């Protein structure tokens, strides 16, 4: 496996871990407690940032592995994967939800967490099956 492939697999493992950690942070956390207590709020916000950063890093590695120019921004990195056939256009519809979480507290945190975990799992499986094997 090349350096890029190793990076992708390492980042996917990190992404999975961050998602599990976020699930633990959010378990049983009410909106009131989230707003009142800085520690769980900062932990959730930072984990969301780490998840997004890992996804963008993975995207960049996949784009470079396809010998394409590096994406200019986070959205372009996802669009490039669609153009390469690694992910489908439907996957892009999840991006506004990720951005909304990073900017503001979602109204139904548990539903968002479950939906995001399923989306991550589906996208990871889809991307892994379309990625060249080492």
What does this structure look like?
It is a single chain. Helix 1 (3-26) packs antiparallel against helix 3 (38-65), helix 1 runs antiparallel to helix 6 and helix 3 (38-65) crosses helix 4 (74-84). The chain has one domain (3-130): Four Helix Bundle (Hemerythrin (Met), subunit A) (Up-down Bundle). It is elongated. By secondary structure, it is mainly alpha-helical. It starts with a helix and ends with a helix. The protein has six helices and no strands. It has helices at residues 3-26, 31-36, 38-65, 74-84, 95-103, 109-130. The model is unreliable at 105-110 (pLDDT under 50).
Quick take:
With 134 residues, the protein is mostly helical.
Strand content: under 5%
Distance between the termini: 5 Å
Low-confidence stretches: 105-110
Overall spatial form: elongated
Mean pLDDT: 76
**CATH architecture descriptor:** Up-down Bundle
* CATH-defined fold name: Four Helix Bundle (Hemerythrin (Met), subunit A)
Computed over alpha carbons, the radius of gyration is 15 Å
Which helices and strands occur, and which strands form pairs?
Elements: H1 3-26, H2 31-36, H3 38-65, H4 74-84, H5 95-103, H6 109-130
Helix pairs in contact: 1-3, 1-6, 3-4
Question: What attributes does this structure have?
Answer:
Four Helix Bundle (Hemerythrin (Met), subunit A); 6 helices; elongated
């Amino acid at each position: 496996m090349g350096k890029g492939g190793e990076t992708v697999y390492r980042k996917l493992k990190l992404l999975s871990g961050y998602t599990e950690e976020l699930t633990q942070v959010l378990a049983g956390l009410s909106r009131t407690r989230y707003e009142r207590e800085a520690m769980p709020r900062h932990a959730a916000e930072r984990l969301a940032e780490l998840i997004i950063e890992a996804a963008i890093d993975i995207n960049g590695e996949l784009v470079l592995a396809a010998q394409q120019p590096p994406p200019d921004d986070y959205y372009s990195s996802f669009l490039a994967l669609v153009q390469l056939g690694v992910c489908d256009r439907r996957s892009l519809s999840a991006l506004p939800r990720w951005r909304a979480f990073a900017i503001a507290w979602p109204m139904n945190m548990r539903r968002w967490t479950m939906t995001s975990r399923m989306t991550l799992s589906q996208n990871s499986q889809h991307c892994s099956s379309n990625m060249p094997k080492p």
